[in-house]
Amino acid sequence: MKLSPPLERGILERRYKRFLADIRLADGQVVTMHCPNTGAMLGCAEPGSEAWYSDSANPARKYRHTLEVVVAETGRVGVNTARANRLVEEALVDQQLPPFDGCRLVRREASIPDESGRFDFLIEDARQRPCYLEVKSMTLCDRSGRGSFPDAVSERAIKHVAALARRVVEGDRGMLVFCVQHTGVRIATLADDIHPQYGAAVRKAVSQGVEVYAFGCRIEPDEILIDGILPVNLEADQRC
Length: 240
Known about the structure:
Layout (H helix, E strand, L loop, with lengths): L7 E9 L3 E5 L5 E5 L15 E6 L9 E8 L2 E4 L3 H12 L10 E8 L6 E7 L5 E9 L1 E2 L4 E4 L5 H15 L3 E8 L6 E4 L5 H12 L3 E10 L2 E8 L10
Parallel strand pairs: 9-12, 11-13, 12-14
Antiparallel strand pairs: 1-2, 1-4, 2-3, 4-5, 5-6, 7-8, 8-9, 10-11, 14-15
């Protein structure tokens, strides 16, 4: 994903009201920006952190700037969760995701058969079998390089996992994809200490045949892209 113009740099003053962040620009001015992230942003919302932002150049927007990346102690973090789906779609179309070789993108925002709600993507594998994908943006990382999801309680995420499992029972494929927008993550895990019910739901879904993958990202001021597959460890966190 090319970013043109490249992201600009500032300093994070604070993130608040979920969708707002105050950023100090190079000239000292403090600007309130849109922060497109519904999570807790644990570890990537520390005041004083370097922050990268985009400028829509649209004076009609209430907040014309968007917070995109925070440089945390553990790495660069893509905090714009809306980019996760676009990154995965781009890699799917370009055949850059090894587990999905030979797959064809059918549609975005696919309705869940016989249920309310939508999955992020419907693809078709080489055997022409329907595959439903749900994408989650992983940004939580500890100092050892252990990434985990979620960073806040998410009942919606549990519902998506259960729906994926039901599709597998019906003969389709269900896939949970973690788009790891954190350059410090070396292995993807489940945040049992934050939301144990989600971890339990994922493990149950995997036992029913749901597939889980994690893809790391390269994050630069002029480009963000998926650049490799990461190992996934679904064992329960013994620290909980």
